[in-house]
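User: Need the bound-state model for guanosine-5'-diphosphate:
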Amino acid sequence: MSRAKGAPTRREGRLTIQTVAGDAEGAERMRSLASVRRAREREREKRKGGTVEQARVAREVIIPDVITVGDLANRMATRGVEIIKFLMRQGVMLKINDVIDNDTAELVATEFGHTVRRVSEADVEEGFIGAEDVDDYLVARPPVVTVMGHVDHGKTSLLDALRSADVVSGEHGGITQHIGAYQVRLEGGQAVTFLDTPGHAAFSAMRMRGANVTDIVVLVVAADDGVMPQTVEAINHAKAAGAPIIVAINKIDKPGADPTRVINELLQHEIVVESLGGDTQAIQVSAKEKMGLDDLIEAILLQAEVLDLKANPDRTADGMVIEAKLDRGRGAVSTVLVKRGTLKRGDIVVAGDTFGRVRALLNERGEQLSEAGPSVPVEILGMDGTPSPGEPFAVVENEARARELTDYRTRLKREKAGSPIQGASLADMMAKLADKKVSELPVIIKADVQGSAEAIVGSLDKLAHEEVRARIILSGAGAISESDVMLAKGAGSPILGFNVRASKQAQVLAEREGVEIRYYSIIYDLIDDMKGVLSGMLAPIQRETFLGNAEVLQAFDISKIGRVAGCRVSEGVVRKGARVRIIRADIVVLELGTLQTLKRFKDEVNEVPSGQECGMAFQGFQDIKAGDTIECFTLEEVRRTL
Ligand code: GDP
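Assistant: Bound-state model below.
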């Protein structure tokens, strides 16, 4: 950075506007000011004992994913121009507020003699799944088994049959809930966890996320059908996941069953069963007749012993999401499989971009648990959304940490999705509003858990019609607060409370401001109610029923009544009080009139049939002429519903 020698000399040859304009003096003046300032600076630095360069202290510069030039300069305790100049020499033209990536920033900082510590937003992920446990703390855990095989070979039947091996069922009621996984407890005190997600899709989805929880694959092959394409697929999946296979040769009760054929066919796929000197166990079973199930379980336990499956139960839990759904009554319900540690009620769990405090833990029998240890599948209630299957979950120390993680992940997801979601949908909405007349019912939704709020929003969205729809001003979890009421007042919307109540102050405020709060405890009731309201907002349609036509033969004025038409009914009937349309030379001259008076000779009548003559007078229409056609019809208002 030695720019010590005379700026003036450099400047002399330079072509500036001032020199062109002959205002050399001005140029000189400007130059002087700047160079004097620089000279002074150099003086100062010298006095401090050294050149600018020497004075520079090597520091540790913290560099995030992206940084502006100005920011980087600050962190390096340098002036921005220095960095700009440096970058310029590298052929990059940047301004002080331009953003550079971390690689460039690192290059700059090291060039200037600093050390660099890169930090990344992604660092929040660090420690989400804790380090490996030390061997000393590990205790045996049940194996996690996935049943795979070709379609119709009996995966579902086998899983169902295996449920009956459960010894606890007798006393406590059987496995009733399909929560995506279940644990069978055996007489010997052991347990086996089955993933109840037949089909390779779920298995692959989980493996794709690198969160494989399956210890053992039970490969179901029908003895009467042999190795089929999906059998091969399953073998490949198991091999890729490094999970040992146990072959269950199913349907041996069938007349055409040929276990030897299955064993031979498996050879072609490098599955060598024990009877042929290999190390793969093959068990003959019948899911239908419940034959060989004990042998199969025995084989699983043996395999588990070989694998020496262990986990540390005395730590914060982590594991994997098996499935998740929005339940109408319970909000977001996720089934997770604990891999290690013990998951407890009250723990704060993060999975994907969702989190929540575990309100309840339920097992496959629908029983409430207070905790769940390694290899135990449980349903957890209390998450604020539904994480994807295969997503790792972990307990974090507090809510702040949970938010930090989920905020980051949400942001990442949005960035990946490309366009900012909100902007797009807003624009969408504006466009729709512009070309259609849509009436909107603004609503504010407060629910006990985020999951319920989401379910309600989802259902309300489904109610949307091209003319009416609900507009969600706010949806969230928690009691109805004063600020909700104020928001409702501003938006002219009611507040729908699902399993929540308004605080005392909010209630008072709502009464004073005339804001309606409706409470519900069943989502269907809420949806029905909203459906009713939205239906009410749909403009009724008018249904026209044709009655008859009449020709005007003559028109004359009668005092008191006004202008009267002498007509002949040419078609159908005409009826007093009915609606009329008057047409003259094929042009409608009166769109919607009322037949006020109908006379036959001197008498007022209600109806005149085709072929007869009559006198008519119309409400508010005095311009009737001979030759006009009168169309007579009734008009009904029909209410529409969603
Ligand atoms: P998946 O598609 O692999 O889940 O197969 P399923 O469990 O749905 O079974 C397919 C069909 O095979 C069903 O009609 C079952 O009743 C039948 N099945 C399953 N296991 C047996 C068995 O051991 N013996 C006999 N005879 N039929 C079976």
